[in-house]
Amino acid sequence: MSLQALKRTVSKQARTVTPAIRSLATPSSSRSDFKQTLSDGPSLDDFIVDNVPERVVFGNTKVPRLPSYLKTNIPKGSSFASIKKDLRGLGLHTVCEEARCPNIGDCWGGKEGASEVEGKRAATATIMLMGDTCTRGCRFCSIKTSRAPPPLDPHEPENTAEAISRWGLGYIVLTSVDRDDLADGGARHFAETIRKIKQKAPQILVEALTGDFQGSLPMVSVVAKSGLDVYAHNIETAEALTRFVRDRRATFRQSLKVLEHAKAEGVRVTKTSIMLGVGENEEQVIDALGELRKVDVDVVTFGQYMRPTKRHMKVERYVEPAEFDRWKIIAEDMGFMYVASGPLVRSSYKAGEFYIENVLRGKGTEKRAKNLLDHKGTTSGLISSTS
């Protein structure tokens, strides 16, 4: 067969081939099933109801809602701006910022409606020494943690004293992260800062809110003898809840020994703080107060625990202001020199306002003397409390 004849044969066969039909390899009834489901399902009328709710609730309704009395205003004011500017310039840290305290504007802002000088004198700031990274991980605290924080800044005591003397505050609180990585827990650094402040501004009242120095009482002595006015160490909660709230290295009994030793070293005022709303009951709190009185703690504060982030332990309940008032009465009746109790009270909240007039300037000791006379009916209490 010639080449031309072969081409004609192939072309004719191609024209007679039945064209292929595109289709699914396996026929599906999904479309018909979907149509049937729609027709059998609810109609538009089923979604339209007469009783439309006035309020739609979004989010997690199982978590207690933040009460109005725990909401605060945005920080502002000349005193607030001045303190913040100096902190940044000198590279200092505050627990007010690091722990996200709700009272930062109230404390740093000073006295509302007062002159600039009076406002600064009424303001309170809490400087956090030894960096912004802690070696412990308490379940309520938002401060950063690490086993090996950066080394101490040798210029921090001088810079802190310079900033505080410049502000013209009447009361300053020094606290610190826990530094279990240091041989002395940072006690000497703490004490040096207090001495520098007293040299530059002797009129300022200084409160030291310390850790437990891993139970090292000699290190407690180093801070207690540095010239401070108030030695504070927080037990945070009742003994039964301590292991669920605080780092495992912190114990209730160890904290009591720190406070007891500070008083034995001649500190005029010792102080602690208790958070409410973490699962405690009344009996546990009363027991804790009793143990504090046994070691002669002078001042106690009660405040509401507020969860800093979702990674931290949950708020068990929000305590009503009336209950805080009741705890104030109970603690005062047990013999505490001064009690600050309220939803927004923190261990250093409005420290100047609470203590300068009522405790450190003399009125607190007069009140305690009167309480001792009322309870004991003797004059020995007056002599011991005013000496």
UniProtKB/TrEMBL annotation:
Pathway(s) served: Protein modification; protein lipoylation via endogenous pathway; protein N(6)-(lipoyl)lysine from octanoyl-[acyl-carrier-protein]: step 2/2
UniProt KW keywords: 4Fe-4S, Iron, Iron-sulfur, Metal-binding, Mitochondrion, S-adenosyl-L-methionine, Transferase
Cofactor entry: [4Fe-4S] cluster
Pfam families reported for this sequence: LIAS_N, Radical_SAM
Main location: mitochondrion
One Gene Ontology CC term in the entry: mitochondrion
Gene Ontology MF terms: 4 iron, 4 sulfur cluster binding; lipoate synthase activity; metal ion binding
Entry EC no(s): 2.8.1.8
List of residues binding [4Fe-4S] cluster 2: C134, C138, C141
Taxonomic superkingdom: Eukaryota
Domain Radical SAM core: 117-337
Recorded coiled-coil stretches: none
Catalytic activity: [[Fe-S] cluster scaffold protein carrying a second [4Fe-4S](2+) cluster] + N(6)-octanoyl-L-lysyl-[protein] + 2 oxidized [2Fe-2S]-[ferredoxin] + 2 S-adenosyl-L-methionine + 4 H(+) = [[Fe-S] cluster scaffold protein] + N(6)-[(R)-dihydrolipoyl]-L-lysyl-[protein] + 4 Fe(3+) + 2 hydrogen sulfide + 2 5'-deoxyadenosine + 2 L-methionine + 2 reduced [2Fe-2S]-[ferredoxin]
SMART domains: Elp3
Listed name of the protein: Lipoyl synthase, mitochondrial
Organism: Sanghuangporus baumii (Phellinus baumii)
Phylogenetic classification of the source organism: Eukaryota, Fungi, Dikarya, Basidiomycota, Agaricomycotina
